[in-house]
Amino acid sequence: MKFFSICALAAFSLLIGGCGPSAPKPTATLTGKVTLGGTPVPAGTSILFMDPTTGNVAVGLVGDGGAFTASTNGTPGLFVGEYSVTAKGPDLVVDAEAAMQPGFKPPTDPIPAKYQSAQSSGEKVTIVDGPNTYNLDMTP
Description:
The chain is an alpha+beta fold and 140 residues long. It is built from three helices and ten strands. The relative contact order is 0.24.
């Protein structure tokens, strides 16, 4: 009977304690502005932060005036570390009727190709605990 009581207590402790610790939460915040030659990039541009050491990734969706706030898995904030920085222009929507017209030229991504790859952008940012600011002024 004593063995059964100990087993029941252990099972109850596991049940009350949950299945283990929850995933860690980001401890830093990052805000900033993205410009191209000093002019804010279009709203909807994405800026991607990737820590090649840990694999942590954060994304900032650019709003009006080029401003962004980075998020990790939909939660504002990111983890401490050194991140490579890339950018991608907003999804480009093309009117089907216009696309069928002679001489139609599809829209191009407003972000220079150099900044769309971590290997070529050369942009890095070091994130520390607490609030951080990073402004990216891309050159054409």
